[in-house]
Design a protein that fits this description.
extended, mainly alpha
Length: about 80
């Protein structure tokens, strides 16, 4: 890889390192319990929306497969599909 590109990547990581670690510290502060994921999910959603990187919409996960080609165990909970 070109040295100039490597330098640009390293500089970008260095510039945003504190912001990234603050974000991760906030994220791991949320409870990670089945059925209580909403606050963490909303935190991630707000972050994506602020960054203008919100390509997500509804995705039908019922056709997804595991690496072993097995169907995912999809259940509806609270009106939403859960894996």
């Amino acid at each position: 890889m070109d040295k100039a590109i490597i330098t640009k990547i390293k500089d970008s990581v260095d510039r945003s390192f504190d912001e990234q670690t603050d974000f991760l510290a906030d994220l791991v502060g949320f409870a990670s319990l089945r059925g209580k994921e909403a606050p963490a999910q909303e935190f991630i959603e707000r972050a994506y929306r602020r960054s203008a990187s919100w390509p997500l919409g509804y995705v039908d996960i019922s056709s997804f497969r595991t690496p072993n080609r097995e169907r995912l165990d999809v259940r509806t909970w609270g009106g939403l599909e859960q894996v």
